[in-house]
Amino acid sequence: MSSFEPRDPVAHVDEAVEDLPGATLVRVSGELDHLTAPAFEAVALPAARQCRTRLVIDLSEVGFLTSAGIAVVLAAGTEAPGRVHVVAGTGFTRRSLEITGAQDVVRLWDTRDEALAAD
């Protein structure tokens, strides 16, 4: 009988916050599930609360998105003083957000440039 000992975490996520002229950008890459959503939440919610203008959450490099990650996006959407713009691309990530009705809380965009240029 063998035992399973992973060398790498099963799921991973990288996140970064950048202050840009007219926007706060939260970039996320990797997988957003119940294991990684707390790390995303620890970055996204403070950024949403402290955002002076608008918040852009870039999920274009997220390859896997579950309800835990969507919940953080929606929480950021309700915490931010202004409208939250989410770069969701055109694939799985966007479809997951659309199915949940996230567009009622945040605006969805295909590209980061579109989200940053929006009012």
From TrEMBL:
Signal peptide: none
PROSITE patterns named among the record's database cross-references: STAS (PS50801)
CDD domains, A to Z: STAS_anti-anti-sigma_factors
Span of domain STAS: 13-119
GO molecular function: anti-sigma factor antagonist activity
One Pfam family it belongs to: STAS
Family annotation (PANTHER family): ANTI-SIGMA FACTOR ANTAGONIST TM_1081-RELATED, ANTI-SIGMA FACTOR ANTAGONIST TM_1081-RELATED-RELATED
Family recorded in the similarity comment: Belongs to the anti-sigma-factor antagonist family.
Name of the protein this chain belongs to: Anti-sigma factor antagonist
Source organism of the structure: Amycolatopsis endophytica
